[in-house]
Queue: 3 jobs
Job 1
Amino acid sequence: MSDNVFGISYSPALLPLVLLLGMGPKHSCVRVGQDSISVTMGYGFRATIPRQNVRAVMPDTASVGAWGVHGWRGTWLVNGSSAGIVRMELEPGVRAWVMGVPVRLTTLRISVNTPDELMSLLRRSR
């Protein structure tokens, strides 16, 4: 099985800044392989999640007040846009890296260009 790659969505207003910081679309994606999900947003965020750890996947309609990489106590928002956010609940949690610092990841909220396709793929594999 080849990997399925999903682009992280970006607001046009944010693109100049993230391109300068090296966290734009060229360096960011969600890559779904047979056994794992790799999430990268430039040097700002990276995680490898075993697919078996994904307990739930759903649209995330909670308000979003910022773009970039933000989190606390295991819940991380990785987004370039306020739209198309997918929520993944993980059990057990995994280690992720934010700006090179290890963090715990139990809930990932991530903006993607095609959220319905990502959710459908992850649900089929469970």
Job 2
Amino acid sequence: MPSTLDLRRRIRSVKNAAQITKAMQMVAAAKMRKAQAAAVAGRPYQEMLTRVLAAIKGRVEPSSHELLAVRPVRRELMLIFSTDKGLCGPLNTNLFRELTGTDRDKTEFVVMGRKAVQYIARTRQNLAADFALKDTVHYADVRPIARFASDKFISGEIDQVRVLYPKFVNTLTQQPVLRNLLPIPAEELDLEGDTNRGEFLFEPDAQGVLGAILPHYMAFQLYQMALNTRASEHSARMVAMKNATDNAKDLIKDLTLEYNKVRQQNITTELLEITTAQLAVG
């Protein structure tokens, strides 16, 4: 049975840990609100871009742009958005589980986030590039990533580009998503029920607008994925730290109860010893 001194030390150490996790929870909550607002704010613009491309699609040949070219997949480029730090629950574990069936012989990886770098190194897969993203992501930060991927696709080195990222659903739910980026999937631009399709006028022509807007559309897709990653990371970390704080509080209650029992037992033992000694003397 542990002594009262050992129990006091454990209670003190758990209280210190609870203070740390509580502080990390508050920091993550503050960052989460900003990241969630940024992720949600870009969705209307993304939807409008998709509607514009859907309107162009009906006026040009689907294969008229090199980013739309569909060919047999001999080599693939996989982009992975992960977190830089841990302590965010099973977010990264669930993310990397989606790569279980990947053919490593024909796949190159481009990663954003130190956890993805560590995963690729640990599994000994082919790392083509590693891009660092700031905690607050800006559109300019993802443009080099988009340019790197599109250059490889246009040159013919890569026949398909896919992206793996954690989609922010809500504070408690972050969903791993593995989706095609290049060639831009036709189903993304298939908006048959869009009544706004006839409202767009293109200058100088639809083909010229298509060539200008497709690279921007691709880069903005990556930007939204990066924002989703940050929102998912801070949400998952806040929930994980809240759970850790609650568990620490429960552990403190259990240790305090055990401490009181041991202390009461020691007092009872001392009283019995004193009583026994008095009876022996008297």
Job 3
Amino acid sequence: MPHSNVARRYAQGVFQLAQEEHDLDGWRTELGKLEALLEDEVLRAAFANPAVSMARRLELAKRLAPELKPESENLLRLLVEHQRTAEMQAIRRAFERMADEASGIVDVTLTSAVELAEADRRRYERELAERLGRQVRIHYRRDPELIGGALIQIGDRVVDGSVRSQLQRLRQALAG
């Protein structure tokens, strides 16, 4: 799912701070805490209620997550003040992608017609890592409509080795 420009800007700011602090993993944890906090039903109700003041919203959030770093509290304050708390999940995802890229990790989505055995998953991970020259994190999906083979998405690139697409190409060749 594409991230909004707003989420990307916030994530970029956090990412730069995390790089300066040499603490990408610490910030992964902090953003996870913020995301979980902002999913709290009581807090969401308070944020949706116009009668609850900005100061009261922040006070409530800090009480629910007293372990947040001061920098995370600042991010929370900005999100609350600018009514951007709904962007937190997108901010965390955008940050994760930036941190992974900086760490040399590439996200891959592999869709297959059937559930892959563990040995097949390891083979795909090994072969993709070799071909890309980077560490890979594969997200497996299943789509029976592919019939067989696999669909591999790496960023914006898609490698379609599914039987369904091979049949479509054959059908087009026969028709044209």
